[in-house]
Write a structure and sequence with these properties.
The protein has 2 helices and 13 strands; from the N terminus they run E-E-E-E-E-E-E-E-E-E-E-H-H-E-E. The chain is mainly beta. A 5-stranded parallel beta sheet has the order 2-4-6-8-10. The chain has a 4-stranded parallel beta sheet with strand order 1-3-5-7, with no helix packed on it.
Amino acid sequence: QGGNFYQCTKLKEISLLGEIREITGGGNFAYSGIEKIHFSPNLEKIGATSDGSFNFTTCSSLMEVDFGKDSKLSVIQYTTFQSCTALTTISLPKGLTYIGGAVFQKCTNVNLNPLYIPVSCKTIEVSAFNEVKAPVIIEGSVSSGTRAEVVPNLENAGCKIINVCLSVCLS
């Protein structure tokens, strides 16, 4: 539930393993000193609730997020990693289908590795990547069908379409 590690500035690394399938609620790690997170490959859904609660928002020391090789994660909800200004490494799982609004908004580290959006991702909400300094690369064709649905939201965030197979967001 919410607030478990809120403002724990001495917490540097955490592994959330085992049978954890969902992490929601308010402020679980917000404003903590966490630098690295390892998630259970069983995790399917992570992020804020509709009431605006958040999980890792404003973890300004967070540098690395590891969902694991065989991650089952399919949903990253609203504001999950918003304002994680030190973030450099995050690999989005191949089965990811949904990225909510403002998930990576204000992740402004210029050393952030490119964010690869897997082919499975059918929905990217408005502002998901606002102010992100790293390239956002969509895998697969974006010229037709469900992949084309994600393009307008990336364009609204300042993304530029390179060709029918690739989109790169350059702030």
